[in-house]
Design a protein that fits this description.
The structure is a homodimer.
Chain A (H helix, E strand, L loop, with lengths): L10 H17 L9 E5 L5 E5 L2 E5 L4 E7 L3 H8 L2 E8 L4 E12 L5 H5 L3 H4 L4 E2 L13 E2 L6 E16 L3 E7 L7 E3 L2
Antiparallel strand pairs in A: 1-2, 1-5, 3-4, 4-9, 5-6, 6-9, 7-8, 9-10, 10-11
Chain lengths: ~190, ~190
């Protein structure tokens, strides 16, 4: 059968494709990898999943980056449990990417240079009052007040990648940091 | 400002819209709610997120339904921690739906009538050998062997819904089973 995605047949080319598409997500706001779903776990053990914007992808280091309001629920989750999952479904590539990572929460001086490059409209996302998730009497009883002190970078150190390609035959592979990303086929 | 989604301005109409779209996902395989992301937590505390197919949505009971291979990783996760998150991003409606639920794993006689209605091609998804996630030497070293004994229904009792509408002004509301789904606006 003709498979339009020859990169899916090899472990190395599949892994390279995953990273290429993550980088494309950072560069192109219309790419599917621009808006992954980030899952965290609350202190009570409830998983939480929400859309985030992918801001950085470094294949060599195996690191991804997401920005967030420091007062958001996801930061509270990460303070109790730094483990996260990231999910991207790329319909054009028939590719599901599932990432396991450990998050570090960077703030203040450590991210001042990043904040300096955040354009004004995007700054609206950091520092709303009252903080995200606060109960309010009216739907619009909040204000956006850009505040560098509320800006946080989540640096996600990737621990494992699980990639599933839905082709004429499905293929699934797992890559882990501890095995040097060499890859292992899994039954889909 | 003209908002094309007047349902987003009221707590009741927003909640009804969420359920309407979940039902549409069950009925229409091209709807965004057809393929939510389901997040679980492994026994080691790692969140896991993957695409699933939404098979049932009952607004009156507040119950959703997903089918899975009983040997899949998500079932192993759920045996240790039955709490799940479900995430749908509906680009047309500018609506993010985040659901917290408790999963029950139904198998065997309890789902025999459901299995009887699963069409042949879909049955391929239940009973692959070796089981999903097993390391294999070659990418295609697996076989699909439909097996009723590997078919499980995840009945998801919804505990809370968090809905975010990205309109001219963003609106966010939370609904919980314990408050009778009456809804509470939150700062987005």
């Amino acid at each position: 059968m003709n498979d339009p995605h020859p990169w899916a047949v090899g472990l190395d080319s599949l892994r390279d494709q995953v990273w290429q598409r993550l980088r494309r997500g950072v560069a192109d706001r219309h790419d599917p990898a621009r808006h992954p779903v980030l899952a965290t776990v609350t202190p009570g053990g409830m998983p939480q999943a929400r859309t985030v914007v992918l801001r950085g992808a470094d294949p060599a280091a195996g690191v991804l980056e997401v920005h967030t309001d420091l007062m958001s629920g996801k930061v509270a989750d990460l303070r109790a449990n730094p483990l996260v999952a990231l999910h991207v479904w790329d319909a054009g590539a028939h590719l599901q990417t599932r990432i396991e990572a450990r998050a570090a929460i960077l703030t203040g001086d450590a991210v001042a240079q990043v904040w300096a490059r955040v354009p004004d409209p995007s700054r609206q996302s950091y520092g709303s009052q009252p903080p995200p998730g606060t109960p309010i009497d009216d739907a619009l009883a909040y204000a956006k007040r850009p505040d560098a002190a509320c800006f946080a970078v989540l640096r996600l150190t990737v621990l494992a990648i699980d990639a599933v390609h839905l082709g004429p035959q499905h293929r699934r592979a797992r890559y882990t940091r501890e095995t040097g990303w060499q890859g292992q086929w899994l039954a889909p």
